[in-house]
C-alpha cells in the first residue's frame, strides 16, 4: 500500500525544486539543494503508484519512435510537471536498455532510482586546449571533445540521488542492469534548444574496457559527438501518481 504522505511528499519535492532552482546563483542555493536532495531521497516507487516493469507497448506510438510499428521502446517517460526553472518526470527502462552518453548544457540535474538497478557513468568536459595528447586516429575529421571519465557506479532505490551540475558529471550514460528500472528525474532548467539547451550524444573514441571500475577512474578520454542511435528512442506514458500543482 502507498504511504499516507505520498501526495504531500511528491508535492513537497516539486515545491522545493521550484524554490531551489528559481535562484541557482543565489546565496541559499547550496542549502536549498541539500533540502531537495533529502526530500528526493525519501521518494519510493509506491509513492508514485509505480510497480517494477519496463515501458509499455503503448509508449511506442506515443513516443514518435522509429518507423517499425508494434515495438516496445527501450525507454519511456512519464511527465509530472514543468516550469521555466525545472522539469520533473519518471524514466522507465527495459531490462538491458541504455540511455546513451549525453549532456545537459548549462543544467543541474538530480536522479533518484525508484526500482531496479542502474549503472551510471559520469564525465566532465575539459576546457579547450587542456588535452595533453591529440585525439586518436579513429576520430577522423569529426569534432572531438576531451573529457574526464569520473565514475561508473551502481544505483538502487537504497542509493542517494545522483547529482549533476553544469560543470560536474554533466555527461552521463545510464544502463539498466539485471532487469527493468525506473528513476525520478529533475532537470533545471529544462531542455530548450532555442536557448542553447539541446541534448547532444557522444561515444568514446578510446578503447576503455566496459568493465573498468574505480580505482582505474577517473581517467581522461576523447569523445566524439554522434547522432542519436537508431536503436534508442523514448516513448511517452501517462503518469499514474499523485497530481502536482505549482
TrEMBL record:
Matching CDD domains: cupin_ADO (cd20289)
InterPro entries per UniProt: PCO/ADO (IPR012864), RmlC-like_jellyroll (IPR014710), RmlC_Cupin_sf (IPR011051)
Organism for this UniProt entry: Poecile atricapillus
SUPFAM superfamilies in the cross-refs: RmlC-like cupins
Protein's name in the database: AEDO dioxygenase
One cellular component (GO) term of this entry: mitochondrion
Biological classification of the source: Eukaryota, Metazoa, Chordata, Craniata, Vertebrata
Entry keyword annotation includes Metal-binding: yes
A Pfam cross-reference name: PCO_ADO
Gene Ontology molecular-function annotations: metal ion binding; oxidoreductase activity, acting on single donors with incorporation of molecular oxygen, incorporation of two atoms of oxygen
Gene that this polypeptide is encoded by: Ado
UniProt keyword annotations, A-Z: Dioxygenase, Iron, Metal-binding, Oxidoreductase
